């Protein structure tokens, strides 16, 4: 393999490589742009590096794949490896934020300063509805997804290095958390009594259970005699509808029930059994505690 450098226009340096096709034996000439070269000497240094990488198999052949095209390919790859809800979050950030900001750039030409510039613009006007910028937390999430995707590009030998490693997302700025006080909580519980959200509110307020955990709670996980319940599952929305999943750590947790909640759950179970009986169904431990009225 031989090569030399050539300048096309002022300051536009290219590596000109002479190779032979391994099948036909015919001579081939390849031009590789050297945008970082500032003069002939640096261009020759880049040429030497490229020749070494080609001989060792570490060089990536330049192609015209855009960042947008690659990210769609990566989404198809990652979909089989994460939960549906996680994939949905990835796809939303890619298509609503990353692709509009960086999608038109050729993957092999993506640079850290372009990524940092995209983050700065997103802070000012990155919302899809055009009403202001994105939060620092959202941009940091974007950065995590981009970094993960480009790491896979390195594995697939689409690029030689990850430009997101050298780009820093904005520092996280946390807003003040909005909470309800004791009086507001009591008022909320009072207003919910007699409605279908009364028990879910009690489980959330008194047991600290998440929405998905409340929806997945079944009577077999509730022991009203000992005043305890086990959180062993959660629900999430996927492409095929709602599904249940285990906790992220693979382990459940035990929650002690206040006396007031035990009383309300006993009353709730009795009312639920009567309602199901009118429908010709017998209440079992496999039924959900917060069963919807549409079944």
Summarize the topology.
Blueprint: E1 2-7, E2 13-20, E3 27-33, H1 40-56, H2 67-78, H3 84-102, H4 112-125, H5 136-155, H6 182-192, H7 198-207, H8 211-216, E4 222-223, E5 228-231, E6 234-238, E7 241-245, E8 253-256, H9 259-278
Antiparallel strand pairs: 1-2, 2-3, 4-5, 5-8, 6-7
Structure description:
The protein has 295 residues and is α+β, with helices and mostly antiparallel strands. It folds into three domains: 2-56; 67-166, Tyrosine recombinase, N-terminal domain (DNA polymerase, domain 1, Orthogonal Bundle), CATH 1.10.150; 182-278, hpI Integrase, Chain A (Orthogonal Bundle). Helices cover 44% and strands 14% of the residues. It contains nine helices and eight strands. It has helices spanning 40-56, 67-78, 84-102, 112-125, 136-155, 182-192, 198-207, 211-216, 259-278, and strands at 2-7, 13-20, 27-33, 222-223, 228-231, 234-238, 241-245, 253-256. The strands form three sheets. Strands 1-2-3 form a three-stranded antiparallel β-sheet, covered by helices on one side. Strands 4-5-8 form a three-stranded antiparallel β-sheet, with no helix packed on it. A hairpin with a 4-residue loop joins strand 4 (222-223) and strand 5. Helix 2 (67-78) packs antiparallel against helix 3 and helix 2 (67-78) crosses helix 5. The radius of gyration is 29 Å and the shape is elongated. The protein starts with a strand and ends in a 17-residue tail after the last helix. The relative contact order is 0.07.
